[in-house]
Amino acid sequence: MAKGKVSYSCGLDAAVDVVGGKWKPLILWALHEAGTRRFGELRRDVSGVSEKMLIQQLRELEADGIVHREVYREVPPRVEYSLTGLGQSLNTALLPLGQWGDDFMSQILRNKEHPRTGPA
């Protein structure tokens, strides 16, 4: 979420603003796959994310109405995260992108190992 952004040039601009970055799609996918998750479970599910970055990304997703944060007032305190209806619809939109990545992953990796040089 871009702070202070009040308009978008198109729907893709709005969607990328909400889901942009390395970690948000992986967080969304983890919540899609497993449903409601506690913070520690999410941290394990999203391999490589730091605690600080996970907290930041979850706060942004919550502010955008994509993720619901439920705090249970018990000892020790418990916090759970789940997708809102808006978040579920966003994941539905991301499914074809994930399928594209699965279909072309080996080609993408080959291109990264042997980048083209010069003009296209």
Concise summary:
The chain has 120 residues and is mostly helical. The protein has helices at 11-19, 24-34, 39-45, 51-63, 85-113; strands spanning 37-38, 67-72, 78-83. A three-stranded antiparallel sheet has the order 1-3-2.
Q: How far apart are the termini?
A: 33 Å
**DSSP strand content:** 5-15%
Helix content: 55-70%
Query: Could you name the ranges where pLDDT drops below 50 across 5 or more consecutive residues?
Result: none
Q: Biggest sheet, strands in spatial order?
A: 1-3-2
Morphology call:
globular
Structural class estimated from helices and strands: mainly alpha
Q: Round the Cα radius of gyration to an integer and report it.
A: 17 Å
Number of helices: 5
Please, what is the oligomeric state? single chain
Query: Mind describing the biggest β-sheet?
Result: 3 strands, antiparallel
> How many DSSP-defined strands?
3
- Would you tell me the overall average pLDDT? 90
Instruction: Write the element-wise H/E pattern from the N-terminal end onward.
Output: HHEHHEEH
